[in-house]
Amino acid sequence: MGFPCHPPRSRSRRPRPHRASRLPRHAEARVRAREQAPAKVNLFLHVTGRRADGYHLLDSLAVFASLADTLTASPAHALSLAVTGPFADRIGPGEENLVLRAARSLCPNGRGALIALEKRIPVAAGLGGGSSDAAAALRLLSRLWGVPVPSTDAAVRLGADVPVCLAAAPARMLGIGEVVAPAPPLPPGLGMVLANPGLTLATPEVFRARSGPFDAPAEPPPRFPDAAALAAWLRGTRNALEDAAVALCPPVADVLAACAALPGALIARMSGSGPTCFALFATVAEAEAAAASLARAEPHWFIWGGGLYRDRRGGL
Ligand SMILES: C[C@@](CO)(OP(=O)(O)O)[C@H](O)COP(=O)(O)OP(=O)(O)OC[C@H]1O[C@@H](n2ccc(N)nc2=O)[C@H](O)[C@@H]1O
Ligand SMILES: Nc1ncnc2c1ncn2[C@@H]1O[C@H](COP(=O)(O)OP(=O)(O)O)[C@@H](O)[C@H]1O
């Protein structure tokens, strides 16, 4: 293909069965703790500068969709990970998995746990799935092992998205992601459609392909009275990685256009470094109906419609 975005690499020839019971049988009886790892969506993403080490300074409003991976853990002598779910074949259960990297960072001297990850968030998609899994592992294992959750400065070493994913609530991301600040209260009941063309984009490549001047920071108002006011304010912001993602992966433009054309869509934009795009709706019912019609039109895309994770007013 002529552009460097890829059909997701499958790690096994045959997709793994998506069992009704999603835990390894031996773990089921002894589950002690469970955490959701919701998908992160950047409602806007400004790149405001660049550090000497090459990392970019960001200003972003991150929210979380109720689309989520699930982690469960039970006590064990050794540390192990089993991965199931619709996207299990895209990542391995080995030491490179961010869940195990998070576990090792929390307790380098080697505490044990039998961890199961149900992978429902598309991989390398701009939805911070790996970072959210790492953050959920930190929350889960800190409870199981009785150790404190690490600071944002420590968490960011696992990935720039991990600090905001630790909060798993609407928040402003600043610095390279290590500064997590409260977001204004969002209108309750927002609906969202997520659409991904079944391709992956590597975050470093998208940052490398970005060009042009840096953005000004975007200062949100103290509150958004309703969904229309939120969308109107968002129209004055942008995702500064969108042009680079479209250049690397032209189908992103089609996904954006399809999201923008959904009946009831208040705004459509790419999340993070893409290629997943989202559309915002005033209600969850509108988002679900729009997702169903888009799924009929684009049967090969990953389409999800629903609400925000633990929708509550007030953010952090
Ligand atoms: C772009 C964002 C926006 O929320 O989301 P995703 O598209 O990954 O979901 C994040 O900043 C991504 O966070 P994350 O995916 O954890 O990034 P990391 O693993 O720390 O970094 C991967 C690479 O992206 C680049 N990078 C990342 C973050 C940042 N603030 N500046 C950068 O330049 C660097 O080249 C880095 O080596
Ligand atoms: N638990 C995990 N879930 C998803 N990706 C993971 C995980 N562990 C490691 N990775 C790796 O992290 C990279 C980024 O994945 P992901 O967080 O899904 O991307 P994005 O932030 O763009 O949505 C991928 O190369 C993937 O192989």
UniProtKB/TrEMBL annotation:
Keyword Kinase: yes
Domain GHMP kinase N-terminal span(s) in chain numbering: 97-162
Catalysed reactions, as listed in the record: 4-CDP-2-C-methyl-D-erythritol + ATP = 4-CDP-2-C-methyl-D-erythritol 2-phosphate + ADP + H(+)
Annotated region (Disordered), positions in chain: 1-32
Binding site for ATP: 122-132
GO BP annotation list: isopentenyl diphosphate biosynthetic process, methylerythritol 4-phosphate pathway; terpenoid biosynthetic process
Superkingdom: Bacteria
GO molecular function: 4-(cytidine 5'-diphospho)-2-C-methyl-D-erythritol kinase activity; ATP binding
ATP-binding as UniProt keyword: yes
Ranges of Basic residues composition bias in the record: 8-24
Biological or metabolic pathway of the protein: Isoprenoid biosynthesis; isopentenyl diphosphate biosynthesis via DXP pathway; isopentenyl diphosphate from 1-deoxy-D-xylulose 5-phosphate: step 3/6
Segments forming a coiled coil: none
Active site: 40, 161
Function noted in UniProt: Catalyzes the phosphorylation of the position 2 hydroxy group of 4-diphosphocytidyl-2C-methyl-D-erythritol.
Entry-linked HAMAP family: IspE
Family affiliation: Belongs to the GHMP kinase family. IspE subfamily.
The protein's name in its UniProt record: 4-diphosphocytidyl-2-C-methyl-D-erythritol kinase
Species of the source: Elioraea tepida
